[in-house]
Task: inverse folding
């Protein structure tokens, strides 16, 4: 009987913790903390034959808007070369941003990251080498809480500003799928920042 009660209590605590994670991811994705910063950091997503995917394009468009509105003069584009690709997501983002009028001199690239954690660590090193200390993080809403937690672990002064034009629309079935999926990835931050079996899907940002 004691074992049964203890096990039931454990399951209730796990369920409560998971529900809290889902709610936190959902609500945090609604926050936009954009303010003047040293850099705008765009997390990579898929690219197709040198063209940004709809998800990556939405992130880039939001970052370009922030740049145009004067939140920061510097943009940092992240993302390495995916399996089967010949060009990095960061480079594809650079070409797109320049085509939209962002001066090449304003753009820094992080080309090596193949996960959010790898990209964020490389971004911190890149920022330090350029004397930058604060950043606006741009990604999809469901991705923002994990990015902020990663930034906190890396002692990066960061603010979240999710895109609102992503195909993974707010309140959509797709968003809830990603929120639930993210709630399973989030605990990995306490043991490391990689969860390969959950992260490796074609349409999901790293």
Result:
């Amino acid at each position: 009987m004691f074992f049964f009660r203890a096990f039931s209590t454990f399951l209730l605590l796990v369920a409560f913790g998971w529900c809290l994670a889902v709610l936190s991811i959902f609500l945090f994705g609604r926050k936009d903390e954009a303010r003047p910063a040293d850099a705008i950091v765009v997390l990579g997503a898929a690219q197709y034959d040198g063209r940004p995917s709809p998800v990556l394009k939405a992130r880039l468009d939001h970052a370009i808007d922030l740049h145009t509105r004067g939140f920061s003069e510097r943009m940092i584009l992240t993302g390495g070369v995916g399996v089967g690709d010949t060009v990095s997501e960061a480079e594809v983002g650079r070409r797109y941003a320049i085509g939209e009028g962002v001066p090449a001199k304003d753009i820094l690239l992080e080309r090596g990251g193949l996960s959010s954690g790898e990209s964020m660590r490389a971004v911190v090193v890149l920022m330090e080498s350029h004397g930058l200390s604060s950043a606006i993080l741009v990604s999809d809403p469901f991705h923002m809480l994990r990015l902020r937690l990663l930034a906190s672990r890396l002692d990066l002064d960061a603010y979240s500003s999710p895109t609102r034009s992503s195909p993974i629309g707010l309140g959509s079935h797709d968003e809830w799928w990603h929120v639930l999926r993210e709630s399973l990835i989030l605990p990995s931050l306490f043991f490391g920042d990689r969860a390969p079996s959950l992260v490796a899907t074609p349409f999901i940002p790293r």
Remarks:
- The chain has a mean pLDDT of 87.
